[in-house]
Amino acid sequence: MISSNSNGSKGTRIPVSLILGYLASNNTVEQIMEEFPDLVKEQIAACLDYARDLSDFETVA
Question: Do the beta carbons of residue 35 and residue 48 sit within 8 Å?
């Protein structure tokens, strides 16, 4: 999953921002896993969850 202390995928030294960049460039999960064989689908999904959590904020009506 995600390592919050280094912003990398847990068990790897792959930064979350790198995975998000691949996704933003329209790479599929399968293409990312080919590029980074140590990653599994759940870790890539966790990168998206991490980004979502960072972007959450409350609005005042």
Answer: no
* CA dihedral for 39, 45, 49, 17, sign (positive or negative): positive
Instruction: Transcribe the chain into DSSP letters.
Output: -EETTTTEETTS--BHHHHHHHHHTT--HHHHHHHSTT--HHHHHHHHHHHHHHH------
Q: What is the pLDDT along the chain (61 residues), one digit of tens a residue?
A: 444 444 555 567 899 999 999 999 999 999 999 999 999 999 999 999 999 988 887 666 6
